[in-house]
């Protein structure tokens, strides 16, 4: 419990730094074309990160948690080499084709807005490379139960990036926002380097590396589809009035920030434990750990949402009311956050439920649920946007994510019931 509070405190400082970073951008620039370009420029690199490095952490942590010594170092080195090569190639391709894919992601932007987004996207690609490559170091620390150092490294990188932004934005303009995010990624990668040492020459024929690839394949194939969720949002909202993209992004990021605090403090420490229990087939202990973690996340999530409902609006008014944001824009931001209730609550539950599947070395089930749910979600988002504008996107997102969480919970509980031993009349277990 003490470690959970320490992690929550460190993660909270990191979230505050990231929030102040985005707050400073919006307050200094206002909710308009420039801030929209900043947030739109990071969408495709972020989607790729979510697909590749996000998937890797789900698969790699349970595998690394069950090995030690030379085998641990070999697995880390194999993944480090593979991910560095992969993100290097992806980064070069994105940089060379930025003039092609940016206009497709923001069709509603003006020509000058698209040009600015292209310029900022080139800078964001550098940050994508280091963030993706650094996912191996993060997984290595988590597998060793060294959550505090990993969280502290991330927090330090965020604070230094914020300092850079405050100094650079008044001097070089909007590009400082993109450079600051790339600097954060570089620093976070540098701070994670001790976790991957000693580095060895990759052996991609290694049996466990092949296992990682086998587990990743269905996950990446599925997530490459349903992780385009952000692209759908940006494409739709680019057709709305200028500034609404920034407000939608800001509401998502505030929830994502709070989600990260709770996940790092509560859900992430449960992953190695669940993986070890699954490997020993201790299914009753596995279920107790999963349900306890899920319950804590749900209670905390409900409490935080209640605070957003009241006095959330007045807090937002106090925080954002001193810059270029109008009171009507702050009220819209608050209403978007209220509409994101499903996104917030199921974002928490989905973390521990999907992680439980991954601890059982099952990547296909949550991926299939994600694909089906997102297909329904696209229709809900489009319909919601046509009916209610930006609020409709938030409502549609929450609706399909709720369906995903309910499906994962039902299948997981059913599978655990089958796996658990049944008590016989004589008291023995069968």
UniProtKB/TrEMBL annotation:
Record-annotated membrane-spanning stretches: 5-27, 47-67, 79-101, 121-141, 148-170, 254-275, 296-320, 332-353, 365-382, 388-412
Q: Which GO terms describe its molecular function?
A: lipid-linked peptidoglycan transporter activity
Annotated GO CC locations: plasma membrane
Major localisation:
membrane
- Which Pfam families does the record match to this protein? MurJ (PF03023)
The membrane topology of this protein is: Multi-pass membrane protein
Q: Looking at the keywords, is Ligase present?
A: no
Transmembrane helix as a keyword of this entry, yes or no, is yes
Keyword terms, alphabetized: Cell membrane, Cell shape, Membrane, Peptidoglycan synthesis, Transmembrane, Transmembrane helix
| GO terms, biological process | lipid translocation; peptidoglycan biosynthetic process; regulation of cell shape
Subcellular localization: Cell membrane
Q: Which family does it belong to?
A: Belongs to the MurJ/MviN family.
Q: What does this protein do?
A: Involved in peptidoglycan biosynthesis. Transports lipid-linked peptidoglycan precursors from the inner to the outer leaflet of the cytoplasmic membrane.
Q: What is this protein called?
A: Virulence factor MviN
